[in-house]
Design goal:
Blueprint: H1 11-14, H2 94-112, H3 117-128, H4 133-145, H5 149-161, H6 168-183, H7 192-201, H8 206-217, H9 227-240, H10 243-251, H11 256-266, H12 285-301, H13 335-339, E1 350-358, H14 364-382, E2 387-395, E3 404-410, H15 413-420, H16 435-443, E4 454-461, H17 470-482, E5 485-493, H18 495-503, H19 512-520, E6 525-529, H20 552-564, H21 573-583
Parallel strand pairs: 1-2, 1-4, 4-5, 5-6
Antiparallel strand pairs: 2-3
Helix pairs in contact: 2-3, 3-5, 4-5, 5-21, 6-7, 7-9, 9-11, 10-11, 10-12, 14-15, 16-17, 17-19, 20-21
Length: 613
């Protein structure tokens, strides 16, 4: 599982994010594969278009900030004053609602001209909340003309949420931009679900089949952000009843790097007629996938599919799950609309985030998550802060190999990841862990001395602190709050937590001590799922679970953003995070290591070779 970053992922790196107005910045395919197939007026299959010149800056796919770049005016030093709407009599009369809507549109025109990409993105989300032809027109304009690609993607996803209501010419433009953005590898994660739907409505043409194959090759079954896209691919191939694509997917099971992905797709056809590969989990990878391939081929030979004709395919009718579909303003007294008229400039210079992570034996999944996602977190933070840093304090308990181990705050995520890679979960024989010692250690990290810096501490654990340490923790946290710190807690549901909850009658099932720490620290507390691949959850063996709102990176990012955003932004945090985390998603080629047959060993059950895959 690779998720969780409640952060400050918005202004700095992206406040400098400008690309040339109206131009889709070219992004190289990080895998060196063929680019997404596109269609032009001259014919359905053409050579890739030449890429726009790349400027120096972040790695491909990571937007640049919107600061003092050439040709871009610098952001004002003082925050913009919020627009003050003129008093309107609250009423449900149509003429008053129309006057209120005009005021809303005029106000958002100003926000859309802001030099701050976050203010413009929040304005897009505000427009998405209103079902009106004029808001649709503004969203079309942003998708076509905004100088920051990420803002254009917010507008594209907002139009996805209302695509069933778009005029024919607007929908055609939205669809055309989808394929152009895909060709530049700008649609990632769940933003590809709409792309698959648009491919499906064109039917199983030669071009559509190549697009399906491209998407399959550019997804990863270990990445939660790609799981729903793989499901959508399977649903499309099934509805097309496309025998050559079905055979092609099954053939991919011969390649270990593609096999897990291929079975995820084929599981959309049937979950009962063909046994899952996990019943072969103690076999070698070669035997596992040779047997699984044969099972699916035997199933395939019994089918009598007839491929649908393109003209029989129905238009894509899905909509975005990340953006609101929009609703009519029915009552000007509704406080939601007035709050939406009061967007302020979001300004965050320095952001320090310290993660205190329990690394005892049951916390293997969270440790693997942070190893894999720390770079993604930093990319997100760079978009919302000018000077973000991340530090980590690993902790266990007294009597273990170490009690605490610090990796100091740094702006170099690659170095942080390198230092985390050798760490392994171990120890923690009794239930309470050394939370007090972890907090003492993390507060001694080299935090920014600036009074304007945002200093966030996030504690992650599946076990409470020692009972006799609570008074000292309260004193430590409250004193730190006076110095500008905020404390958030992540309560982790691991298989070990579930075991304790079921077996120990007096166990604190809600881990309420972490609620207290968050309360003392002026922060929030949330649960997150980090299921191990054990017999408790066999169907997910070897692949990720799809991205959910309760996954680590989203929780951390949500906590951080809510801590630093003005109240006028807070209703938009979840849509903002949804698109932002897909935007910073770094496509990674799926790689699987072959493994031998498991031989039982004395003293315990055989080790599952997929536990670490």
């Amino acid at each position: 599982m690779r998720n969780l970053s409640v952060f400050i992922v918005c202004v700095a790196g992206l406040v400098l994010l400008t690309t040339t107005a109206g131009v889709v910045a070219a992004a190289e395919d990080p895998r060196g594969r063929e680019r997404f197939p596109i269609e032009t007026p001259e014919g359905p299959e053409v050579a890739p278009q030449p890429e726009a010149p790349q400027t120096e800056g972040p790695a491909p796919g990571v937007p640049q900030t919107e600061g003092p770049a050439p040709g871009v005016p610098p952001a004002p030093e003082k925050p913009e004053a919020p627009s003050t709407p003129k008093p309107l009599k609250h009423t449900q009369r149509p003429e008053s609602i129309e006057a209120y809507l005009r005021l809303f549109l005029d106000t958002y025109d100003k926000h859309l001209r802001s030099p701050d990409w976050i203010a413009r993105s929040m304005a897009v989300i505000g427009l998405a909340m209103i079902d009106d032809e004029r808001t649709t027109n503004k969203l079309i304009g942003v998708m076509e003309e905004d100088k920051a690609m990420i803002v254009r993607l917010y507008a594209w996803e907002a139009l996805h949420a209302r695509q069933r209501r778009l005029k024919a010419e607007h929908r055609a433009l939205w669809k055309r931009r989808a394929f152009e953005f895909a060709e530049k590898n700008l649609l990632r994660g769940d933003m590809r679900i709409g792309l698959v739907g648009l491919i499906e409505e064109d039917g199983p043409t030669s071009l559509s089949k190549k697009r399906i194959q491209w998407l399959f090759a550019n997804t990863n079954s270990i990445n939660p952000s790609d799981i729903r896209t793989l499901w959508a691919l399977g649903d499309t191939i099934k509805r097309w009843q496309c025998t050559d694509l079905i055979r092609w997917v099954i053939e991919r099971m011969k390649v270990l790097d593609d096999a897990y992905r291929a079975e995820l797709v084929m599981r959309r056809f049937t979950t009962e007629e063909v046994k899952h590969h996990s019943d072969l989990r103690l076999e070698s990878s070669e035997v596992m996938w040779a047997t699984t391939y044969k099972r699916w081929m035997d199933w395939y030979k019994k089918q009598a599919y007839k491929e649908v004709r393109p003209r029989d395919c129905t238009p894509y009718a899905g909509r975005s799950e990340m953006m609101p579909p929009g609703e009519k303003i029915a009552d000007t007294a509704d406080p939601r609309w007035r709050r939406d008229l009061e967007i302020k400039r979001f300004h965050l210079d320095q952001l320090d985030v310290g993660l205190a992570l329990d690394t005892t034996g049951s916390m293997g999944r969270p440790l693997e998550w942070i190893k894999g996602d720390v770079i993604k977190m930093m990319r997100a933070f760079e978009l919302v802060s000018r000077e973000p840093r991340i530090g980590v304090t690993l902790y266990r308990d007294h009597g273990d190999e170490f009690v605490t181990r610090d990796i100091p705050l740094t702006d170099n995520a690659a170095d942080l990841q390198k230092r985390l890679m050798p760490e392994k979960p171990k120890g923690g024989g009794d239930i309470p862990e050394a939370v007090l010692e972890a907090l003492v250690s993390i507060l001694h990290q080299p935090w920014s001395p600036s009074t304007k810096a945002m200093k966030i501490v996030v504690i992650m654990s599946d076990a409470p602190p020692k009972e006799d340490s609570l008074e000292k923790i309260e004193t430590l946290v409250t004193q730190a709050v006076e110095k500008g710190f905020q404390f958030h807690t992540i309560k982790v549901r691991t298989s070990k937590y579930i075991e304790r909850r079921l077996k120990l009658p007096n166990y604190d099932k809600e881990l309420t001590t972490f609620d207290k720490i968050a309360q003392w620290g002026g922060g929030t507390t949330e649960w997150v799922e980090f299921w191990t691949q054990s017999e408790m959850n066999p169907r997910w063996r070897g692949t990720a679970q799809p991205t959910e709102g309760n996954m680590a990176e989203r929780i951390i990012l949500r906590q951080v953003l809510r801590a630093v955003l003005d109240d006028s932004y807070k209703a938009r945090v979840d849509p903002f995070i949804g698109v932002l985390l897909e935007y910073v998603e770094e496509p990674i080629k799926e790689t699987r290591k072959p493994f031998p047959k498991v031989v039982p060993h004395p003293g315990g059950p055989p080790r599952d070779p997929q536990m670490n895959r």
